[in-house]
Amino acid sequence: MAWILLVAAGILEVVWSYFMKKSEGFSLLAPTSITLVTMVASFALLSVSMKTLPLGTAYTIWTGIGAVGAFIVGIFALGEAATPMRIVAALFIVAGIVMMKLSNS
After folding, report:
1. Looking at the whole model, is its pTM more than 0.90?
2. DSSP H stretches of helix in 23-54
3. Phi/psi zone of residue 20: left (φ > 0), alpha (ψ -120 to 50 degrees), beta?
4. Tell me, what's the pLDDT at 83?
């Protein structure tokens, strides 16, 4: 169950980072509200998952899901560049997440 909560927390991190970008510096009410609600939910789920998962594992996977997810959303929803170097960097993050999960098996 902790892993499911951790993945959900990571996905919510992607959601809040996207809406933070859309809030234009917290000047738009709807995106700002979505940012704050999903941010609190993400932290809450991360906190619950940390009751059973090691800190280093949980935090690394949470931030990794957020980083790679934001990278993908940036490319597909915001038109950001998908350069070879950025793609390789994202693959390194994914490799780190997989290794962290395997080290906990």
Report:
1. no
2. 29-49
3. alpha
4. 96
| Closest C-alpha among 10, 4, 16, 2 to residue 60 | 10
- How many whole angstroms separate alpha carbon 6 and alpha carbon 49? 6
Per-residue pLDDT tens digits for 8-56: 999 999 999 999 999 999 999 999 999 999 999 999 999 999 999 999 8
How far is residue 105's CA from residue 37's CA, in Å, rounded to a whole number? 32
Tokens (6 digits) for 104: 């906990």
Residue 102 has φ and ψ, to the nearest 5°, of -65, -30
Query: How far apart, in whole angstroms, are the C-alpha atoms of residue 65 and residue 11?
Result: 7
End-to-end CA distance of the chain: 14
